Amino acid sequence: MTQAILREILDYAHRANPYPLYEELRKTPVLHEADGPYVVSKYYDIQSLLHDPRVSSDARNLKSPAADPLAADAQEETALPPSFLRLDPPEHDRLRRMTNRPFGPPHSPRRVYDMHGELKDIVSGLIDGIDNPDRIDLVDQVSYPFPVTVICRVLGVPREDESRFHTWADTIAAGLDPAPDADREERDKIVHNARTELGMYLAGLIEERRKKPGDDMLSELASSHGPDGAMTTMEVLSTAALLLIAGHETTVNLITNGMLTLLRNPDVLGRLREDPKLSVPIVEELLRFEPPVQLVPQRTTLADIEVRGVTIPKGASLWLVLASGNRDPDRFDHPDRFDPERGDIQHLGFGSGIHSCFGAPLARLEAQLALSELARRLENPRLLEDPPPYRQNAVLRGPRHLPIACDGIRP
Ligand code: HEM
């Protein structure tokens, strides 16, 4: 019975609406099947495990990787060394601190804020480029190119190379999908090749930036010598790859899920059109209601941990279902209602604890700008398909296309 729920969640047939399944899943807050992962689905349990130092993000601590559907992905890390997403303290903290120096407070408090104008120009340019208002694919025309362009600019990837990143990032992100499929071996090979190609490309770029630094993050990561010393070339490489992929495959879904939700809630869309500042609470509620990262599958226990009477043994694989915690009625009133006015939106959309999303300020700003500009400029927008076709990925979940139409594009 319980086993069937997990399989159903990963099954593509439920991609458009997994939330009734999460409701079912929460009836067994710590679900464990045969030698599979321990799946945790209630808000406070997830929150506490995300802060628990006995929980590791390092896949090398997994006792029996073969039992975990994501083990092959962890082994793929050999093509690039593990990024700080997959490391524990103290290595994680050192690398995260060093990466933060050119990105956020206290050393670069205005970095994201100062990009406001450039970001707005990029999204406006994409909306200007919509040539047929009768059929717009929001994913291909706005939500995908926008964050891809932004993260490439932040890092300093030359514009002419941006399209190569789409392919690599797509392939690597698809490898994060735990859905069992027959072509696992073939897919692993493709993911491995993509990681290798991305690694080789970035190594060349790092070399160039060391010789001739610019004001981009890659230059700063490659050349900075703060109190933590300097990053090795391999560390710069895996950090840059992490930022690129994390910046590619998540924000696209926040923007697309956002527009889909707004078109299903036209009153909220109307209010946003009148008041762009509403994009701030709307984006927070979206991160709760339709989180782009549905579950965090790469955790391992470093000791036996008891949760609600169940002992999760040392070395077990742990899946934390953020999207389920976000809809937990023991935490949020009327959790299935999209309500940007709820005062309390402490969602799990960016995770929590030491691994909480590094790019959150950038992702928030991108989504706020994209949604407020779309609301302002698209005249009478409407959905052409509901539900739209989804990507295969159950972890990084979002529509593959969002076909919409409108009566025209306002200046
Ligand atoms: C809406 C967009 C985004 C969402 C929903 C999101 C979500 C998340 C989540 C849930 C985690 C925690 C993973 C874990 O606990 O294992 C995370 C970590 C991370 N995210 Fe994001 N992310 C987004 C955008 C971005 C962007 C734009 C960047 C890069 C600029 C980024 C960089 C990172 C990094 C580097 C980590 C690892 C942090 C660590 O291990 O200390 N993310 N993100």
UniProtKB/TrEMBL annotation:
- The segment annotated Disordered runs over 57-90
The family assignment reads:
Belongs to the cytochrome P450 family.
Record organism: Streptomyces albiflavescens
Xref: CDD domains: CYP164-like
Q: Which Pfam families match?
A: p450
Q: Extract one GO molecular function annotation from the record.
A: iron ion binding
Does the record bear Ribosomal protein in its keywords?
no
Q: What is this protein called?
A: Cytochrome P450
Assigned keywords, A-Z: Heme, Iron, Metal-binding, Monooxygenase, Oxidoreductase
Matching PANTHER family, A to Z?
A: CYTOCHROME P450 YJIB-RELATED, P450, PUTATIVE (EUROFUNG)-RELATED
